[in-house]
Amino acid sequence: MPKTEDSPRKHMISLYYCYPPAGLPKDQLASHKLFHQETCTNLNLGGRIRVSEEGINGVLSGTEDALRLYETRLRRELLQLVVALDETTSPNECNDDLTTEWLDIKYCHLRNDISVEQQLFDSLQVKITREVVSLIEPTPDNQGKNKGKRCRQRRKQKRKEKKQLQEKLAETFVEEDESNASATIASKEIVTIENWKNNTPAQHLSPEEWNNKLLHLAQQEEKGSCVDSEAVLLDTRNIYETRIGHFAVPKLATFFPNTRKFSSLPLALNTQEAAEALAGKQVFMYCTGGVRCERAGTYLRALSDSNSGAWQGKEKPKAIYQLKGGIQKYLESYGEQVEPKSDDDADAKQCLYRGKNFVFDQRRTDPVVGNGIAKKDVSGRVVDRVSSVGQCIICNNTHDDYDNGFSPCDEKEARCCRCRVLVLVCNDCRHKVRSCGEPETDNTIDLLCGGKKCIDEGNVAEMVETIRF
Questions:
Q1: Catalytic machinery residues
Q2: Nearest to 190 by CA among 314, 303, 312, 283
């Protein structure tokens, strides 16, 4: 991609996904991939796009005009694919309104603290994949015969890494007691559910509907009229995302799976704590842009219906909702690019999100943040405004910048020595730890994402947590 000196307002990030009801024609996936390649190249757009029979998922960077034109052409292309799948539908019967039902697209601002060039994708990658997002870990059974060898190689490498880490850090580990043994076994089991994707997905709530429902339930909880904490939030994202920002609804609990990757979510949902936190409740799910909740909501419904694993004998959730458009869409209405100009303005916003929104593009975080609900004392003075929730893993001081003042493209971030996941380490503590890929020294300790050990090591049940705000 060519260099540009334009201002941040002229360039944007487009984040989108779609799950057409009938999917996409398998025999036209190659031509659809070519459509994306040619269109994006002609419009000078960079980014990543996944194409599958289920639908598409993409993130692109470019000028706003080019991104809008891409959206127009994409909607036209999707309508043609709908006609190809349904011979009873003629092109004249199709219009753009049809795609608005299942194409979710958002336009995101660039950050002002780093250059435009550093925030744009410098290449384009379009891949045909098995799924829009991968919730279930690939295995020889679900990947087909040709994929078995690669899966075995991955498992062998993981076992080797695990043995090396255990030998090196044996003195720092504390053996699990007998009370945790059953939880350890349960947390490693994925409940096999046939055709789980055919279950009813979560009900979509607009940002306004999301806020209204949660604030109403929070008020009921405060008055004591909400029986047994009727609602619970479920953050379906990974731990490095939730560490710098999350919803914090007064009086309501949030279940954090604290996973390293999305495909570990089924393990986290099949834990005793997850079942106890979600059973019989109204579950409010959220993620960055909504695409992960599409699958997580369906899986949670299937898991609770299965009456197996940790959910055996548990009541099903009363309802499962997902935030339409995710955190990104929510912050468009309730977030702030800068600190609120006045306490009255902050209070009127009623923003339930606190902190930054982690994104999977060159920005790392979106410039729009959530400042949370302003808490006031008896005199009406604001006593708590929380827009930063991150903490340094070493000293626990407030810190929410993975890049420590650098641009993400500078690759100065701290990462776990075992799994390479991002870890928050403040500037004062950075010299004390060795990040993944850095040389060993006598004055540093190996950085692990879980503190004393890697979160990807062993028992998922140890990582999940339920927090009431």
A1: 287
A2: 303
